[in-house]
Design brief:
alpha+beta, two-stranded antiparallel sheet, 6 helices, 5 strands, 47% helix
Length: 162
């Protein structure tokens, strides 16, 4: 993931995967739709800049002990988080600090993001692109239960036309 302050966006260009044989390695994303540009809110940009400034200061203190791999979120040495303890060490304390239910999962945050966008009336094509789903049909098939009033809205639109 690359963060571009000027464009207010992130580019998803690679994935991090783990195998017992090779450990962590950067790979191509699952599908061509997984490579994407995600626009950010100004608040997101401000928070990422604040974090980047802290990270730069920390890198400077660690000197050559910090292994810069171009990652935004890392362990204290600049390497990818160890997934075996990420949830208990980092994610659950963040949930507690923000007042979110500690049973929430990282994937649950992604699901909530997608659900909230659809409930706010964001076009499914835009949501599909942000999520990196391979098709709008997939997004709608997974999140279709969030559209209960669409038939009613279609009838109201027809009433306005005629």
């Amino acid at each position: 993931t690359d963060f571009y302050q000027e464009e207010k966006c992130m580019h998803i260009r690679r994935a991090l995967s783990y195998t017992v044989a090779n450990g962590y390695a950067f790979t191509d994303p699952k599908t061509k739709f997984s490579r994407r540009k995600i626009l950010l809110t100004q608040k997101d940009v401000d928070l990422l800049l604040e974090y980047k400034n802290w990270q730069d200061e920390f890198k400077e203190k660690l000197g050559d002990k910090y292994e810069d791999q171009g990652l935004i979120f890392t362990n204290m040495w600049g390497k990818p988080f160890d997934t075996s303890n990420f949830t208990s060490r980092y994610f659950k304390p963040l949930l507690k600090e923000t007042g979110l239910d500690e049973r929430f999962s990282l994937h649950g945050l992604r699901h909530s993001h997608i659900s909230h966008l659809l409930q706010q009336g964001v076009h499914p094509k835009i949501v599909q692109e942000r999520a990196g789903h391979h098709s709008v049909a997939f997004t709608i098939s997974v999140y279709g239960h969030l559209f209960p009033d669409m038939q009613k809205e279609a009838v109201e639109a027809l009433n306005k036309i005629f």
